[in-house]
């Protein structure tokens, strides 16, 4: 049996989270992670982990587990023994294969300060571990992505019905990864489908995926609209003193969405049914006998420009606001391949304060260079000047370039994505404006969605 472990700021040495107990202990913390170190008692996994090896041990440990559960000490998951529980219902709890049972399919704030968020998107499944801080940080945020360890992205074409099994497996693997590595209770994990997934996946497929995800994890998979996603993105990256002067444009794989605030501080959102991947597919359908580059330009003029211009007529702030924040995969590629040695940290003067923000400045000339290299000079595209990079930054950029070149985007997708950027640059008059790529925008959706769900928990508790 394992010894009790101290917990500091929610994390012990092995990277796992344990419940905050108000009991004192005699063991020294493994590492000095902070001053709020308390002892963490045995989880039920530790109690019943070897139960199947001996009938006597199984009985004795089951009794001990029951005592612990009754006293409220650290019982966060039930590990299945060799005998199945015939009374367990798939609709009320996860599949037995997960080895866990959720008391409810709703989000529940239990002990500990870490939550899991799993996104099923147009190009794969992503997992994040999000930490709830005791107080607001310097940016006024209560929820931040926990970065000590990264959850592996699972590349799978989730919207395709033929990839159903692979998609569910990817969600389940991510779910179990979050549970095992961080010891996060299943009731503190949320699962959602992005607006890109919703747009590309047929309705019957969405229903089947949601059902099978619930069976595999015990959690309800909810679907997010493009309007919600745009609002989450705006709230997650725009500083308080920039709210009335900034527009966010997020170019995803399946769609492009964004938001700004009107004079009444109301979110004005917009969405277009084209993203890098979807536009690439549309170009190929219309290509005929001409090359992809020319076909992409033709389709941009025929479809993208008119759609953007029409939306601007209804929502003039898209064109008039002086500050633009870019997000999404193709914007990341643009930044990496044209501004690779940017330090990313700039002092931004606020009305009442200053803050260090992770913003990469982008110019209209950068977009032109990106398009030219994507269409005319692939060697230059993947070999940007790294002479001004620090050693650490150079290694990071080289890894990112390899991802862009071999995994994240095809050559056609880079061309299609650069055409989308050119269309917005033209129609929203980015020339002369302050345009930035915001790396942290990739965390805005999971944080925004979790924040929404936690707010609902608080509202339900007040009723």
What is this structure, in a nutshell?
The protein is of the alpha/beta class. The protein is 42% helix and 17% strand. Strands 3, 4, 5, 6, 7 and 8 form a six-stranded mixed beta sheet that branches.
Give an overview in words.
This is Ppx/GppA phosphatase N-terminal domain-containing protein. It holds the Pfam family Ppx-GppA. Residues 184-295 form the Ppx/GppA phosphatase N-terminal domain. Mean pLDDT is 80; it is low at 1-99 and 345-356. The strands form 4 sheets. Strands 3, 4, 5, 6, 7 and 8 form a 6-stranded mixed beta sheet that branches. A 6-stranded mixed beta sheet has the order 11-10-9-12-16-15, with helices on both faces. By secondary structure, the protein is α/β, with parallel strands linked by helices. Among the domains are: 112-224, ATPase, nucleotide binding domain (Nucleotidyltransferase, domain 5); 237-438, Exopolyphosphatase. Domain 2 (Nucleotidyltransferase, domain 5). It is built from 15 helices and 16 strands.
């Amino acid at each position: 049996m394992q010894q009790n472990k101290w917990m500091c700021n929610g994390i012990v040495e092995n990277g796992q989270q344990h419940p905050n107990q108000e009991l004192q202990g005699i063991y020294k913390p493994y590492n000095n992670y902070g001053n709020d170190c308390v002892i963490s008692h045995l989880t039920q996994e530790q109690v019943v982990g070897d139960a199947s090896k001996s009938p006597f041990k199984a009985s004795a440990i089951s009794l001990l587990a029951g005592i612990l559960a009754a006293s409220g000490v650290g019982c966060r998951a039930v590990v299945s023994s060799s005998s199945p529980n015939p009374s367990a219902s798939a609709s009320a709890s996860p599949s037995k294969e997960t080895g866990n049972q959720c008391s409810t399919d709703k989000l529940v704030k239990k002990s500990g300060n870490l939550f899991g968020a799993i996104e099923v998107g147009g190009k794969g499944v992503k997992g994040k571990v999000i930490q709830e801080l005791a107080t607001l940080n310097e940016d006024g945020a209560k929820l931040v992505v926990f970065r000590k360890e990264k959850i592996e992205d699972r590349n799978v074409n989730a919207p395709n019905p033929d990839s159903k099994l692979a998609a569910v497996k990817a969600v389940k693997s991510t779910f179990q990864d979050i549970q095992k590595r961080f010891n996060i209770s299943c009731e503190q994990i949320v699962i959602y489908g992005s607006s890109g997934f919703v747009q590309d996946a047929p309705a019957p497929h969405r229903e089947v995926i949601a059902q099978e995800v619930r069976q595999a994890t015990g959690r309800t998979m909810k679907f997010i609209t493009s309007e919600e996603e745009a609002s989450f993105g705006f709230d997650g990256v725009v500083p308080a003193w920039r709210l009335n002067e900034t527009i966010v444009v997020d170019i995803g794989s399946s769609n492009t969405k964004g938001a700004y605030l009107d004079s009444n501080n109301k979110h004005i959102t917009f969405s277009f049914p084209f993203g890098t991947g979807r536009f690439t597919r549309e170009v190929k359908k219309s290509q005929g006998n001409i090359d992809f580059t020319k076909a992409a330009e033709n389709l941009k003029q025929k479809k993208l420009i008119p759609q953007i211009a029409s939306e601007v007529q209804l929502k003039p702030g898209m064109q008039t606001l002086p500050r633009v924040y870019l997000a999404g995969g193709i914007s990341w590629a643009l930044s990496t391949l044209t501004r690779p040695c940017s330090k990313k940290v700039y002092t931004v003067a606020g009305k009442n304060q200053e803050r260090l923000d992770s913003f990469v400045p982008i110019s209209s000339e950068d977009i032109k260079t990106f398009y030219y290299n994507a269409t005319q000079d692939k060697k230059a595209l993947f070999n940007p000047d790294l002479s001004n990079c620090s050693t650490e930054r150079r290694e990071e950029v080289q890894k990112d370039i390899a991802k862009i070149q071999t995994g994240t985007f095809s050559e056609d997708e880079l061309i299609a994505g650069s055409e989308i950027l050119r269309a917005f640059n033209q129609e929203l008059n980015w020339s002369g404006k302050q345009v930035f790529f915001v790396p942290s925008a990739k965390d805005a959706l999971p944080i925004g969605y979790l924040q929404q769900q936690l707010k609902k928990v608080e509202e339900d508790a007040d009723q």
